[in-house]
Each structure stands twice: as C-alpha cells, then as structure tokens.
Amino acid sequence: MSETIFYRCEICGNMVALIKSGGGTLTCCGQAMTKLEANSTDAAKEKHVPVVTSESGKIKVAVGSVAHPMTDEHHIEWIALVTGNKVEITYLKPGMEPKAEFTNYTGDAEVIFTGENDEIVPNCEGSPCNFVNRSQVANEVTVYAYCNLHGLWKANL
Ligand SMILES: [Fe+2]
Predict the structure, then answer these.
(1) Which residue blocks in 2-115 are alpha helix, DSSP H?
(2) Cα 108 from chain centroid?
(3) What's the pLDDT tens digit per position in 73-106?
(4) Which domains does the chain show, CATH number per domain?
(5) How far does residue 108's CA lie from ligand 1's centre (Å)?
(6) What is the 73 CA–ligand 1 centroid distance (Å)?
(7) Ligand 1 centroid vs 27 CA: distance in angstroms?
(8) pLDDT, averaged across the chain
(9) 62 by DSSP, 3-state: which?
(10) Contact indicator for 63, 50 with CB cutoff of 8 Å
(11) How far is the C-alpha of 5 from the C-alpha of 33, rounded, in Å?
(12) Which residue of 13, 136, 142, 150 shows the fewest CB atoms closer than 10 Å?
C-alpha cells in the first residue's frame, strides 16, 4: 500500500494520517472529519504538484516545478513520503524552501547490462559490455504535499 488517507477537522484544524483503516468514521469537535482529496482545489498545478527525483536511494522532493511561496499567509506545511512499508513526514515552516529529502530508500539491487553509452541493453552481445550493479529505489513511492490554502497534492515517483 502506498496510499495514505489524511483527514482534517474543519473546526479546530486537527489533521491526521490514517495508519490503518478500520472502516469507522473519524470525528473531531463533534463532527465527521473531512477526508482530504489530493489535487482537488483550483490552484496553480505547477506550484503545488510535487516534483520527485531519486538517486542512490535518496528521494528529493520539490514543491512544485515553480517553487511554491513560503510566507506566513501561504506555505507548504508538510511533505509526506509513502512507500509500500513506510510513511515519513517532513514539516516545513514559512521562510524555508518548499523541499524535502528522504534517505535510505534503496530497494533490492539488480544486475543490469549496459552498452557503450550506458544505455541498458537486454543481453550482453558484442563489446563493450559492462555488468552494473544498480540499486533500485523503493518501488511504489507516493509523495504528498499540503498547502495551508490549497490543500493536499500528490505525485508518484
Ligand atoms: Fe498554495
């Protein structure tokens, strides 16, 4: 599972990430909490959709392709990384960059063949031919970003 469900209380602003779904209704301040739907508000996509890159088990996130504002009035509150077996949240504050870095997301290593220009070739015929031990990043990576004004956004690696 690489989906996590977030809920918000419209009265007090409490926000929760559901660890496991039991099927009941989450309530706060005497009423049902709102399930947050990603990318559901009308706002600039380029400033909100997380841009996710990975290298050697390190996952870098920037929100978004055009940097999101980080003022007191309008900022990214947190960035969450969800993989098959892990949820990690980085909290941000106004004035910080709308970015997060997550480490130790190396998955299984796989041996691949590469050709002359480091392109991956299916088998090793002719030369040059190199065996490269390439470590894969954990699969099923979903990244969420929460804007205090425009809500939840997500992207997959
Ligand atoms: Fe925003």
Answers:
(1) 45-48
(2) 20
(3) 999 999 999 988 889 999 999 999 999 999 988 7
(4) 39-105+141-156 (2.60.40.730)
(5) 36
(6) 10
(7) 26
(8) 86
(9) strand
(10) yes
(11) 12
(12) 13
Task: Assign residue 151 a region (left: φ > 0; alpha: ψ between -120 and 50; beta: otherwise).
Answer: left
Does the pLDDT at position 133 exceed 70? no
With DSSP H G I counted as helix, E B as strand and the rest as coil, what are the percentages for the chain, rounded to 5?
5, 50, 50
Confidence (pLDDT) at 114: 59
What's the token pair of residue 94?
A: 């106004």
20 CA distance to ligand 1 centroid (A)?
Answer: 28
| Intra-chain end-to-end CA distance of the chain, in Å | 14
Q: What does the alpha-carbon distance between residue 96 and residue 110 come to, in Å, rounded to a whole number?
A: 37
C-alpha R_g of the chain: 19
Asked if residues 86 and 94 have their Cβ atoms less than 8 Å apart, the reply is no
Q: Is the dihedral of CA 65, 84, 148, 91 positive or negative?
A: negative
Provide the greatest CA pair distance for the chain. Answer: 71
Q: Each residue of 42-53: pLDDT tens digit? A: 889 999 999 999
